[in-house]
Write a structure and sequence with these properties.
The structure holds 2 protein chains of 2 kinds. By secondary structure, chain A is mainly alpha-helical. Chain A contains 5 helices and no strands. In chain B, 16% of the residues are buried. Classes of the chains: A mainly alpha, B mainly alpha.
């Protein structure tokens, strides 16, 4: 395997690591918030402290935040080795698509044609903005 | 962070001191506000609704950069702004939350539920019983 092929594969691996960690983190956080219930209702019923207690006593939430932190440090690692103009657009736009797929599979969300269109349009838009 | 002197790992205390700089403290407070709002939105809306909607922040950042920092924005970036705006408009038109799939009921069960609702609320009028609008 040549050096250039190796560097391409290492770039793909680093970006994939950021995207996968970010997607797992987002899905776990979303699942945690769904299991807690509407925070506006909880705040109306038991105040701001009650709402904060409901969030910080949910283990799923901490699992999600842990993966989001892992995604952040993976991003820093990738930025240390690759160009910002490659990492930022690739991670930002790919994460939107993987989240749409993960939301449909794991959270059983109704990702209809409208949401797919929105995800793809925003994905291309973020790519153009960050490129 | 650009206005601060270079921070090295040999002196981590300077990094802690940087947190109390007014602009950085304001940035951290706004990030905490963002995360609290994001979690509240996730508690009543789908992830596939919230994520494209929050991407509108990129558009706001680009507009701030153009009109506050007087940065030049290329045609490619304006196209990106337009696409994100259209995408957010698309997703905002639909429902925010996926309805749980309804349990399949037999016709007898449906009739029983409808009858019990009529007993609970005798003033309720079904659509078929409504008088036509004159």
């Amino acid at each position: 395997m040549t050096t250039s092929t190796q560097s391409v594969w290492s770039a793909v691996a680093m970006i994939a690591c950021v995207v996968i960690c970010s997607t797992i983190g987002e899905v776990l956080t979303a699942a945690a918030m769904k299991s807690i219930g509407d925070l506006d209702d909880i705040r109306a019923h038991s105040g701001l402290k009650g709402a904060i207690r409901a969030v910080v006593t949910c283990p799923l939430f901490f699992a999600g935040v842990g993966f989001l932190a892992l995604a952040f440090f993976s991003l820093l690692f990738a930025l240390n080795h690759l160009n910002l103009s490659l990492v930022a657009p690739a991670c930002a736009s790919l994460t939107l698509v993987t989240n749409a797929v993960a939301g449909k599979i794991f959270l059983k969300e109704n990702v209809d044609r409208r949401r797919w269109t929105a995800a793809v349009l925003v994905c291309i838009g973020v790519y153009l903005l960050a490129h | 962070m650009n206005t601060l002197p270079p921070i090295s790992l040999a002196h981590p205390a300077t990094l802690v001191a940087a947190v109390f700089t007014p602009w950085i403290a304001l940035g951290i407070a706004l990030l905490i506000g963002f995360f609290a709002s994001y979690l509240t939105a996730l508690s009543w809306a789908d992830l596939t609704f919230v994520l494209p909607a929050t991407a509108f922040g990129n558009v706001i950042v680009a507009l701030f950069a153009r009109f506050w920092l007087h940065e030049a924005i290329s045609l490619e970036r304006w196209a990106g702004i337009a696409l994100i705006t259209i995408g957010v408009g698309f997703v905002a038109q639909g429902p925010a939350l996926t309805e749980q799939p309804a349990v399949e009921l037999s016709s007898d069960e449906s009739r029983a539920i409808a009858a019990s609702r009529r007993v609970e609320d005798p003033d309720a009028v079904s659509l078929t019983e409504k008088e036509p609008v004159q």
